[in-house]
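ARCHIVE CARD
SHELF: 3
SLOT: left
DATA:
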Amino acid sequence: MKVAIVGAGPAGAHLATLLSQNGCEVLLFDAREQPWEKPCGGGVTTKALREFDFLRKDQSNKQLVSTVRVIGASGREVSVQPKSDFAIYSRAELDRLMRKRAIDAGARFICARVARITNSAGQWDLKTQDGAVYTCDFLVGADGATSKLRPKLGVEFAPHDFFYGLGWHIKTDRAADWDATRVDIKYLRSGTGYIWAFPRTDHVSYGIAAKYQERTPAQLKAELLDLIELQLPAVAREIKMAAHHSTPHATFYGAMIPSLEAASWDRLKVSGDNWALIGDAAGFVDPLTGEGIYYAIKSAELLAEAILTRANDYEARWRTEFGAEMRRAAEMIPRFYRGSFAGQPFTERVIQFARHHRGVRDTLNDLIAGDQSYLGLKQRLFKSLLSI
């Protein structure tokens, strides 16, 4: 079988590796010749490191993290230590690693933007912007959150199915006092979203994400800069003097992040006759946390298994594997970000209880590590609180 994959990020590259290793002819398209530093925190959970052997064995490209500091809008905080380290990747380095694996496995990399697709008698024709035409038996969209292929395949996301994120990658020579084994997650003063500060091997990624159109970019920048100013005041002043754009020490980024609502998960269909979507292009991002790398790699594995056996099984495979979890996460967003518990915002109460109760803290640990499901979260928290 000849498979064309549009997008050479973690999802597309991993699928290319698996299919090439199993005898498929694979065309891997990407408009960029070299991987780039995508707008992404780069967090890879303990669960992902445990499940995907090639990530666990990679020793050169990731920053291992042992502590997560969770900060409420009020400034109240709690530090938790997952049972095992998790990793923060530079997205350029992660994509480079995974793209090399695909090429080494036999995939043919084509640096070109796919401009048009047509299907005739079960065969796909892909025309690139330079006029070249390629054919394949099966077409895969792995071209990210703002996928150009997705609407061409009849799959549409609404504005309310996105978060908007922005931030700065800050070089570590201006952050020498940063604890490279700790990440910070801070909830917003109002609305739906969070701030992150993730250390990488050569810089710190600061970012903020909020429900699309709930806040203006200027408001998001201002709230993120408040945190940067507390931690790296010289860099914050430099960014402000540059009118909130890039500086010699801070590179600005912005991006859309899928965060599908519960009803959208119910009607989502990411495959059809000889085509499928994976990763961010399929909307496979945790609606609550924005974590997508695990689901990019996992969806690639599920689709590879389906293509090599029965392609029509892909839809059932991803729904069985993580579909219910994603839907539950989407249902939790209003309560998590805007709900209250015992007279305080829900996130504030969780932090307060985690500071003083090991059971709640352990639950938070497992949730961050990817080992606590959303489907059983409420029951476990309730049992922990009853034992206080």
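SLOT: right
DATA:
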Amino acid sequence: MIRSTERILTTHVGSLPRPQDVVDCLFAQDRGEPHETAQFEEVIGRAVEDVVRKQAQVGLDVVSDGEMSKISYATYIRHRLNGFEVGNVPRATPQDLDDYPEYRDRIAAAGATPKYLRPICRGPISVKTLAPVEQDIARLKRAITAAGTARAAGGSDGTRGFITAASPGTIAVFQPNEHYGSHGAYLQALASAMRAEYEAIARSGLLVSIDCPDLGMGRHIRFRGVDDAEFLRNAALQVEALNDALANVPAEQARLHICWGNYEGPHTRDIPLKKVLPILLEAKPAQLLIEAANPRHEHEWELWAETRLPEEKVLVPGVLDTSCNFVEHPELVAQRIVRYAHLVGRDRVIAGTDCGFGTFAGFGAVHPAICWAKMQSLVEGARLATEKLWPRGR
């Protein structure tokens, strides 16, 4: 179990700003254009080494590869699983943006929307290759060692490295199904296929960090036309599929991230955390990374006064907003951390971010340099919170 009895540890959700040469490589790969494997590996490998070094220099405890090899947190699976084709089905926009069409169209015209090919399930799902995840693992481990943080691969102080992976529910919610007869059948096929990726990451000694926006954002995207009860019924199926896929992964080696969409918008259609939380607590991962700093969800910290966090779990609340360029003051970060620590225990809180800083390649609301300034504030805020929670080393 990753927890500290001496100080507040720090981490983030996963994606970080990608350099332009990485973005170019990923889009060429996604379009199926010819590209040199050696050059691709050189570009991605160099970027991973650089981004891990930056995380170490800032002082983060639990680090990632920044998702440098992935064009997005969900559509990357097209290159790793059989059964997907690129289609021309329009991408669904969040329901809250459709409520304000002039704003929606303005941000689209300004280029503030992701650009990538959308996979559609049109055949049986199966594993195409495990080579990409094995390469991700090798790159991250090399970079951790090069950054002088070899302990991050499994140190006694709980500091670790992690690699993100899409949940079966996220893939099902964001990649339309034109092959399977039901949402449940589609989920089962995805769980069976993704199991190998999760197990490969865990087997390496790294943490597998499962992206689950399907449990939050899915409400106002895929399930926007149904009521909350129907959404929650499907959310429970999605957690059941995830648990099945993680059957051979120890709970303490898994993290789960839930969010309501990493974009600046009204978010007035977000389902409250209170409604989703009972289902979320049924998920196997021991660490729960929950969006908690933006103005639509920051108030939900109070839920933990009435909700018991299971003993085997650790809370990783977002204490940085990843959709704006404000750099949170370290004192504010510390206040947010301390709130949670007083409710669930100081040794059961790790300071995190609301979401990623590079959700899609070439797309991110936060300027790269400001991303690192925010991370520095995260680390400093955790230090201040530690002083408040462990006065004079007690």
